[in-house]
Amino acid sequence: MNILNYEAVALDDKEKSLVILDQTKLPNEINILHLKTQPEIYHAIYTLQVRGAPAIGIAAGFGVYLAAKNIQAETYDEFFGKFHEAKEYLNSARPTAVNLSWALNRMEKVVIDNRDKNIPEILELLRQECIAIKNDDIEMCRKIGEYGLTLIKDGDGILTHCNAGQLATSKYGTALAPIHLGRERGMNFHVYCDETRPLLQGARLSTFELLADGVDTTLICDNMASQVLKNGWINAVFVGCDRVAANGDACNKIGTSGLAILANYYHVPFYVLGPTSTIDMNIKTGGEIKIEQRKPEEVTEMWYSQRMAPEGVKVFNPAFDVTPHELITGIITEFGIARPPYDESLREIFTKRSK
Ligand code: MRU
Fold it and tell me: Secondary structure of the chain: what % helix, strand, coil (to 5)?
C-alpha cells in the first residue's frame, strides 16, 4: 500500500462525510479525515488539507451535496435559498482556482434545472452530479496524460513546480499525468521537483507520489531551477494551473512565472496542463484573476524549529502568479493541445467540448 493507493478526496460509503487525505501531514503521516460539517469542509479547503484546483472542486461538490442533505425546507424556494447560501460559503474558501466555483455552479445548475421535481428527487440528482464530477476528473486527467505523452519520450528530463499530481486530482494528476501514464506503459523519466516555497507542495507531495510510482525523482530548491535548465537536463517543463484566461495567460502556484521566464531563456518548452474546467473563458486576460494572499507565518515560521525572520518584518505572500501567454509553448487539455495564438486555439478547444 503506497500513497497512490489512497484517494485524495472521496464520499464515504454511507454518504455522510467527505473523506480526504490530509495533505498538510504528508509525507510523514497518512491521516484520513472524515468531514461532516460545512465549517470543517471550508477549513479543509482553506488550510490546504485538500488542495489542487481539481481536488478542491471535487471536495466542494461533495461538500455542497452533504449540505443539501441536511437542509430542512418546506418549499423549493426555501430549499434553493439555503442551498445557494451553502454554495457561496464553500466558494469563499479560496479565491483563485476556478474549479471551485465551476464545480459548485455545476451542482447549483442541477437544483435550478429541476425546480419542478420534489426535494428527494433533487437530492438524488445532486448525488449523481457530485459523483460524476469526480469520475469526469479521472477521465480528463487520463486524456491530458495521453496528450502530454505525445510531447516527451522515454528517458526525458521533466521539471515541475508545486504538485499537480494525483494528490491534486482524483487520479493521475494534470502536470504529472504523462509521467504516471508513462510509468503504466513501462517508460521512465527523470523528474526534477521544485520544492515550492512556502508550502512545499513539491518537496512534500510531488516527490512522494513520484517515488511511490518508481519515478527517478530529484528534489531541488526553487532557486536551483535555473542551474538545472542551464545544465541541459530538462526536455520540458510541465506545470498545472488554477485558472487560465481566454488569451492563454495561466495562473498557477507562485514561482511558476519565474520558471517560465527561465525556460524561455534556455529554450526549453514550457507546457501548462489542465482540464477545461480550469479555463475561464469569461476573463480576457490573467490581469482579471484574483490572487490569494496568505498569512505571513507561512514564510517566516512554518516548517522551521524557530522563527526565521525578525518580528515585525513585512511579508508579501501571494499563493499564485500569472504566466504571460507569450511564454507558454502549449496548454494541454483533455480536448487536445492548444498552441498560440491562444484566443483562437482555446476557443476551438471549447467548441470541441460543446460537441
Ligand atoms: O495552493 P495549492 O497547493 O492548492 O496550489 C496548487 C497548484 O497551484 C496546482 O499547480 C494547480 O492547482 C493544479 S493541480 C492539478
Answer: 45, 15, 40
Domain count, the chain: 2
Residue of 101, 242, 256, 323 best suited for mutating to test ligand 1, as the one with most atoms within 8 Å of CB: 242
**Shared domain check, 162 and 63:** no
Alpha-carbon distance of 107 to 128, in angstroms, equals 10
* Residues 275, 65: Cα–Cα separation, whole Å: 23
CATH of the domain at 41: 1.20.120.420
Do 19 and 69 sit in the same domain of this protein?
Answer: yes
- Domain stops at, among 138, 153, 188: 138
- DSSP β-bridge partners for residue 250: 244, 323
Kindly state whether residues 120 and 243 are assigned to the same domain: no
By most ligand atoms within 8 Å of CB, the mutation choice from 96, 252, 302, 334 for ligand 1 is: 252
Single pTM value for the model: 0.97
* Domain CATH for 275: 3.40.50.10470
Q: For ligand 1, say whether the CB of 242 is within 6 Å of any of its atoms.
A: yes
Of 99, 115, 138, the last residue of a domain is 138
Residue 335 to residue 108: CA distance in whole angstroms:
25
Per residue of the chain (355 residues), give pLDDT as tens.
Answer: 899 999 999 999 898 999 999 999 999 999 999 999 999 999 999 999 999 999 999 999 999 999 999 999 999 999 999 999 999 999 999 999 999 999 999 999 999 999 999 999 999 999 999 999 999 999 999 999 999 999 999 999 999 999 999 999 999 999 999 999 999 999 999 999 999 999 999 999 999 999 999 999 999 999 999 999 999 999 999 999 999 999 999 999 999 999 999 999 999 999 999 999 999 999 999 999 999 999 999 999 999 999 999 999 999 999 999 999 999 999 999 999 999 999 999 999 999 999 8
CA distance 226 to 234: 11
